[in-house]
Specification:
Distance between the termini: 104 Å
Helix content: under 10%
Radius of gyration: 29 Å
Number of helices: 1
Largest sheet: 6 strands, antiparallel
Strand content: 25-35%
Shape: rod-shaped
Number of strands: 11
Order of helices and strands: HEEEEEEEEEEE
Length: 184
């Protein structure tokens, strides 16, 4: 005996309701299309878009990673129309901090960027290099300590308005093998 049409309708409605919000893990990420596939039990979804923090004039890029736990929101219960919300911690990927005072980001290569708003302190630990490009210039207000070598490449170098670059001149010095006194 086959189920009645009413029973079939109820079963379909329950399936759609069950599919509205599903928990799964990232099975595949297509960075070029900004879409991913999610493993939900035995089911692997079609490629679905993931939610980003911003995706308008201001945009962010933080794609989900393989094995990351996510939620799939499916309007009307249709998984093929779903969108993926990442950012759920689990045992394999625990929270990187337990501080209420810190914004903290950890990268797969070991880099850490952190801002502690209680201590007013920005920290970056980088296993590689860093670069700032600012055609309008960079200004640092505050005492500065440099541990390591410093290379300055540019047309001029000044200290309190005095040229101390490679083309600066000393006055009152007789040419020869003697050293000059300290700068004044």
């Amino acid at each position: 005996m086959s189920p009645s049409p009413a029973t079939q309708g109820v079963a379909e409605l329950l399936r759609l309701i069950h599919n509205l919000i599903r928990l799964g893990t990232i099975a595949e990420v297509d960075h070029a299309s900004a879409r991913c596939r999610v493993q939900i039990g035995e089911l692997t979804t079609a490629r679905l878009p993931w939610l980003e923090l911003c995706a308008g004039e201001t945009r962010t890029w933080s794609p989900p990673t393989l094995g990351e736990q996510v939620l799939v929101f499916s309007p009307g219960g249709d998984l093929s129309a779903g969108v993926v919300l990442s950012g759920l911690y689990r045992q394999a990927h625990p929270a990187p901090s337990d501080s209420a005072d810190k914004w903290h980001a950890v990268m797969p290569d070991g880099a850490v960027i952190e801002y502690d708003h209680a201590a007013h302190h920005l920290r970056a630990i980088l296993p590689g290099s860093a670069e700032v490009t600012a055609p309008g210039g960079v200004t640092i207000h505050g005492d500065t300590t440099i541990n390591g070598s410093l290379a300055v490449n540019g047309a001029s170098l000044t200290h309190n308005g005095t040229n101390v670059g490679d083309d600066h001149q000393h006055s009152g010095v007789t040419s020869g093998g003697s050293n000059t006194g300290e700068p004044v």
